[in-house]
Amino acid sequence: MSTHTVNATQAHSESMFDAVLARLDVAAKLMNLSDEVLQVLKNPSKQVKVSLPIMMDNGKIQVFEGYRTVHSTHLGPSKGGIRYAMDVNADEVMALAAWMSFKCAVANLPYGGAKGGIKCDPRTMSVGELERLSRAYAVSMKDVFGVNRDIPAPDMGTSGREMAWILDEFNKINGEDSPGVITGKPIAIGGSLGRDAATGRGVMVNALAALKKMGLLPTEVTAVVQGFGNVGSHAARLLSEKGIKIVGIGDHTASFYNEKGIDIKEALEYAAKNNRVLKGFTGATEIKHEDLLISKCDVLVPAALQNVITEENAGKIQAKLIVEGANGPTTPEADPILNDKKIICVPDILANSGGVTVSYFEWVQNKAGYYWTEEEVNTRHDLKMEIAFEAVWHNASSFKTGMRIAAYITALQKIEQGVKLKGAY
Ligand code: NAD
After folding, report:
1. Is residue 150 part of a domain?
2. CA-to-CA distance for 235 and 208, rounded, in angstroms?
3. pLDDT at res. 113
């Protein structure tokens, strides 16, 4: 296993990190952020790339790329998920790490931001291969992770299972049990009740808060949800439980539409029995993937991938409200098109911050060694989300801007204090 540090200032063109910087610049100008603070935030504080040689089931060694970027630690230890996907790369991890800094600040959590990932296709790997890969990654990141240093969590392609392996490896290295080093763990080993559904729950709380501001009742509106994994499936379920009619769903295998409404319980049961995918579901008409986001609905929840709302399809979106469950689903070029159409967009760094909020609760419970009921977790979560939504809504109105830039401003107002109070060498 080899470790080297990537140059934190290397240039990126057409990159996801550029998309972060584009929004950061707009927000910084509007709020008059000092240039010094802006420079600090434009440069992630640490980037680590590792190579992970893994013995595959066929007896051959395959080398995987692993990443971890710490963007900032001004408000506390860094926090952010670990993603297993084929498009993981240094630029993407850097963008996601920066978003975590802003997300934690918006949600009022005492954390900086980080992100990690391994370039792999977990769907084609055996459980044994995934376990060896996760353990190798944990060993290679032993000096990066720490209860009060850098705390990972699940993201795309990972779940409590991977968190348990990584925790076990970290514990072996350190000779003690440190459940707070990682969140999103299974309940039996220090996970928090409510964590699994938390990101979807945050999407639901944000959607309801926005609908209220728009003067719309949940029972009067329809929604389309792209992605039926952790975020999308819980978001669809919770939105439908609040009376919103879900007319469209989709995952990487198939997309569906039914103007009469889709029975989400039925879709969940179908996916549970069908290797967690929707292909073959009969409760709605199968449509083309590209038609899902532009189909008729009031609320659109992209909860799968980044860069799916672009300048090509933004003009065709029919929803009045977009609630970003995924990280980075909207490109900077699509933003002005959505603004012109007066579509309200609750941005990722606010809309999907429910997951990291309950991850924070998990960390607090691990540190205290005392565990809360699911009701306590959900009540505290909903309150934190409502406060964050109000702060961003308020900034949108006082700075006369959309919710995305307002969310950045809300985050920057806090991070700026951290940078200035802690100072520099
Ligand atoms: P997941 O792996 O559980 O699910 C991803 C879903 O997206 C799956 O249903 C998959 O089929 C679908 N998908 C993949 N490619 C697709 C395509 N081309 N078209 C349509 N659907 C496609 O991942 P997740 O944890 O639900 O994460 C989804 C998004 O939410 C990511 O952007 C992630 O960064 C973000 N997010 C996740 C969390 C969390 O707590 N899990 C928290 C914050 C943000």
Report:
1. yes
2. 12
3. 98
Residue ranges around ligand 1 (CB below 6 Å): 154-157, 199, 226-232, 250-252, 289, 303-305, 325-327, 352, 355
The DSSP H or E segment spanning 345 is strand 344-346
Distance CA 203, CA 392 (A): 15
In angstroms, the Cα distances linking 291 to 4, 35, 102, 169, 306 are 43, 43, 31, 44, 17
Q: Which domain holds residue 271?
A: 198-351
Q: How far is CA 411 from CA 110, 222, 254, 351, in A?
A: 12, 31, 36, 14
Q: What value does the CA radius of gyration of the chain take, rounded to a whole number of Å?
A: 20
> Is 115 a residue of the active site?
yes
Residues 121 and 162 in one domain: yes
**Using CA of residue 172, residue 177, residue 180, residue 183, what is the dihedral sign?**
positive
pTM above 0.70, yes or no: yes
Nearest CA to ligand 1 atom 22: 252
Position 16 scores a pLDDT of 87
Give the ligand 1 atom nearest the CA of 304.
7
Is residue 23 a part of any domain in this protein?
A: no
